[in-house]
Amino acid sequence: MVLKQQMENHIPTNQEIAIKLSRYGLKITPQRVAVLGALIKLCHHPSAEDIFREVVQVIPGLSQATVYNTLDVLVQRGIASKIATSTGVMRYDLIEQPHHHLFDETNSRIEDYYDPELDQILKMYFSKKKIKGFVPLEIKLHVIGAFRDNVV
Amino acid sequence: MVLKQQMENHIPTNQEIAIKLSRYGLKITPQRVAVLGALIKLCHHPSAEDIFREVVQVIPGLSQATVYNTLDVLVQRGIASKIATSTGVMRYDLIEQPHHHLFDETNSRIEDYYDPELDQILKMYFSKKKIKGFVPLEIKLHVIGAFRDNVV
DNA sequence: TTTTAAATTAGATTTATTATTATTAAAAAA
DNA sequence: TTTTTTAATAATAATAAATCTAATTTAAAA
Lengths: 152, 152
Ligand SMILES: [Mn+2]
Ligand SMILES: [Mn+2]
Ligand SMILES: [Zn+2]
Ligand SMILES: [Zn+2]
Known about the structure:
The structure is a homodimer. By secondary structure, chain A is α+β, with helices and mostly antiparallel strands. Chain A has one domain (2-150): Arc Repressor Mutant, subunit A. Chain A has six helices and five strands. In chain A, strands 4-3-5 form a three-stranded mixed β-sheet, with no helix packed on it. Chain A has a two-stranded antiparallel sheet with strand order 1-2. In chain A, helix 4 (48-55) packs across helix 5. The longest helix of chain A is centred in the middle third of the chain and has 13 residues, at 64-76. Chain A starts with a helix and ends in a 5-residue tail after the last strand. In chain A, 16% of the residues are buried. Chain A binds chain B through residues 82, 84-86, 88, 90, 102, 104, 111, 113, 115, 117-118, 121, 125, 129, 131-149, 151-152, and chain B through 82, 84-86, 88, 90, 102, 104, 111, 113, 115, 117-118, 121, 125, 129, 131-149, 151-152. Strand 5 (134-147) of chain A pairs antiparallel with strand 5 (134-147) of chain B, so a sheet runs across the interface. The complex binds manganese (II) ion (MN) (2 copies) and zinc ion (ZN) (2 copies). One manganese (II) ion binds next to loops of chain B. Chain A binds a DNA duplex through residues 27-29, 31-32, 47-49, 61-66, 68-70, 88-90.
């Protein structure tokens, strides 16, 4: 059995990233490949600035605007999503499978939470309970709390 | 039977608002009374600017900083909460009973959603399912979708 | 009434993000 | 391959929400 950790942490090559961009009808540029690569690498919901700092090391002339433009494009195409935070700084998230988020506001940490059982429960609930005058498209749990390392 | 609508829409007097402020150990000022009053009146999750526009009509010399300061104080004391939105503008919410939110991103509309049955389901789920290394404090559903007036 | 700690104000400042536009480069067409 | 077209990027300016600063005012305790 392969550990989940190892499976998720497969680092795609630039080639593979480029293919992903074309699959979504996007022009391949070194900037886009690097930004998407950084979004994959910095897997814990980086800000635009986090991504800029990472990518500018490889592409020294990089403009901040390009990072914002590219992230916008990725969000538009459904490759990434944007998370609004209580500090007013946006964070970005690769969309692989839908998942919920755990927020620790003391250290701005955001982690994924996924449990098919929970989704089943929510699906059941919302299929039964109709909301008057509202068509739900996406149901996300925001769990605010505290990460406690050393505590199971 | 009194309609839920009518019960909720009772507009408190400045006197009542002032009492609420003192109960939370806050100094009573005309600015604070008016800001909290506006937060109650503009019941659909106003922004700081929405509140400023409302209150400056009554207190012409009002400073924007006072609105931000007051809202911060209300959030700190647990009277109000702050909602981060996808546009980067914060919205404010009077805390009466805990509830979830319906977001329509096409028109920035945010509405409350409350169903004790749902909370019971979530409570059950999280009491059974422990999240490793994370202590949850607040569980909120963010339902993104579209309000459809004229559609039930 | 006097005192004092806290609140308010005006304005400057910060900072994430967006807009503008000239330049450059990707990839389609010839 | 070369040309052409279209879109992306870079540099920089602009925007706007929110925060900070410091002088002034005020609420309420003494
Ligand atoms: Mn949220
Ligand atoms: Mn901003
Ligand atoms: Zn995520
Ligand atoms: Zn609400």
